[in-house]
Amino acid sequence: MNSTKFFFVIIILLIFLVILPSSLSIALDAITPNQPLRDGDVLLSTTKIFALGFFSPGNSHNRYLGVWYNKIPIQTIVWTANRDNPVIPTAGAGLLAIHGNHGGLVIYWKDQNTPLWSANVTVSSPNNSVIAKLWDTGNLVLLENNGSNARVLWQGFDYATDTVLPSMKIGLNRRSGLKWLLTSWKSQDDPGSGNFSYEIDPAEFPQFFFYKGRRTEWFRVGTWTGQRLSGVPGYVPNSFRSFVNDKDEIYTMLHVTDSSVFVRAVLDESGILKRFVWRDHENKWIEVSCSPGEWCDYYGQCGPNGICDPYRNYNFSCLCLPGFEPKSPQDWYLKDGLGGCLRKSGASTCQKGEGFVKVARVKVPDSSGARVNMSLSLQGCEQECMKNCSCMAYASADERGGGKGCVTWYGDLIDTRTYSNVGQDLYVRVDAVTLAQFANGSVISKKARLAISLLSALVFLGLVFLLCWLVRRKSKAWRQRKYMFFMEDRTDLDDQSKINSELQFFDLTTVAAATDNFSVANKLGKGGFGTVYKGVLHNGKEVAVKRLSKNSGQGIEEFKNEVMIIAKLQHRNLVKIIGCCIEDEEKMLIYEYVPNKSLDSFIFDETKRNLLDWTKRFEIICGIARGILYLHQDSRLRIIHRDLKASNILLDASMSPKIADFGMARIFLGDQCEANTYRVVGTYGYMSPEYAMEGIFSVKSDVYSFGVLLLEIITGRRNSGYHHKKYPHSNLVGYVWDLWREGNALEIVDPSMGESYHVNEVVRCIQIALLCVQEFAADRPTMSAVVFMLGNEAAVPSPTQPAFLLGRNRTRVDPSTSTEGASSVNDVTCTEIEVR
Fold this sequence. Notes:
The protein is of the alpha+beta class. The chain folds into five domains: 22-159, Agglutinin, subunit A; 297-439, no CATH class; 446-475; 479-592, Phosphorylase Kinase, domain 1; 600-834, Transferase(Phosphotransferase), domain 1 (Orthogonal Bundle), CATH 1.10.510.10. It contains 14 helices and 48 strands. The strands form 13 sheets. An eight-stranded mixed β-sheet has the order 26-25-33-29-34-31-32-30. Helix 9 runs antiparallel to helix 14 (783-791). The termini are far apart.
């Protein structure tokens, strides 16, 4: 009996020895002709920083060969081989092998001879002297060992995908003609070659471009100034700062100051180049910068001979360069070559008395047709440009040491923009009259003074006429008033469409067809101002249509306000408006479609809240904070949202937040800090005390709303209407404050997160929230301070007592009894009260 058992044990061991090794993954240090890499195996770099193997992106089941960080828990793909030729699982497993007849390094289906992808390099004798290794830089290389040294036959860094790593080049090999470039993924589920690329334009004065589609200029990173790329205004740690230009190669590289820090730059599927650094203590990638970052960064926004100045205190950022005037004041933008600026009427730049006007701190124009002479000084450059009547402008080629070298431009000057404290000086050729005006300040002749006087008289008469017209307009019937107001809206929005070339007008037939005639099946939600529907345009683009209620008297004003404001905003944490529709009595806004609806549908839902762990909630918090900071500080105008709440935070496919609904927003001009209104709008539970009680609003009003929102995200509970039997006279803010004073703040944390959250990070966020909801506006931090506290571990001040606007021991304003109120449907619309 014992011998029988022994026999069976031997048989089982033999089976394991034969079958088990073939099913286990193997970690390789090299790929040889006798040792291929199969799906499930990994090739590790020397110090195991990077790994190479087959992977499936996102929700896809297709298999791709790629490189990722081996020492980071989040799989981060940095290079893909067969991005446009995936291994289909149903056709067999993938295999990477060295094959001399099929391109050296080959991917093909198991047991098949047809390669899916190859390195396209000739290997004369694929014997054991040819191997593939993964270096600690993340570079996959094919090596041939000649005895004394190893020769690189092929390397993956020559064929980057969407990610650039330190020591990876973006540029051109002049000898071989090989172009090193980035190409975005098609989507998060498909690493195939996408719609955007980042590459070099190897002209006489080389520059770097983002291209969209078939080489349409998307964003010009610019030329190398000696210290930076001209389209990157300030020093960004771990940014593109190394540059080489010799007879063999021209390229830029990702510069790192500490090789132990993991950094990367990714060109995402929306055409944005984002730079990330890995934070071990936070266990995640931190975005440190992105390009393009604002409206003026996009290529040619102001047309030929225009200059984009985002620091003007006006609604419009475009100006003409000295000596030029708009082709059409109503049509600035580059539309089929009709926009931009022309030389002033009657002016000549090829006569006596002409010269150059300096335009300081700019990104110099597109240098595709520029000429360079590195032997000339700045003075010599001026003389060289003056000799040629076709020379439009000149500048230093290298801004180091006060400037050296000479660049001259011929023809239209395109894609010039202003920076606040960096940039190059551009010298623009002007006629004698313009030169005298700039030299003497402003020369106003008698004729000019007479013209100004006549214009003033005409303006006065126009104002009188307008006043009379308004008086007559008030006396007309309601229907006529309504029709005229509709036409006025359409005119204003027509002007806005001319200013923003991406804002489209849709006719009612198109919108009705996109929403299946506003069917109930396409209904996304409903608020006090109307209903939101999902739509699909004729080109397949998904949109969200906000249809204003016809009997909403408030909606007309908010509609125009929302179009005017949000059309000018460019930030990844703000919802993007695509266009609008004004026809008959219909007024509709068309937005980008955000598939995951609003934040409140997750955090206040017992089932869905489980999908938001602490890491995702913290990313949402930081994204909302950055979006508000942009509105308060980084956009051209200071914007107060006035209706920040969970239902106005939308979540895209990757659960990134986007602030929506700007119908209540207000613009602050210049140094204006606060304003007073008799028309208080917003939502109960999110209003700051000074706004709800006195009608005073400022950036600190939004800070208060953000503090309430932050507590709701942490707790999964609504502030409005919250009740706890232990503290019956407190709302959520008051309850958290009581727990904070008792040292028991973690009791309020949403239990659906379990124990997965970082205690210190959650406590820090609660403390920041309590700082934001302090009773006095002066005590609350700015959003720049909030963003800093969220992203750093510096000490956070102790909060003082918050305001309890909805405490149960206080009188609660009921919108249903207000003299002028609008009730809220599912917290979607505003609440309006009259302050006397």
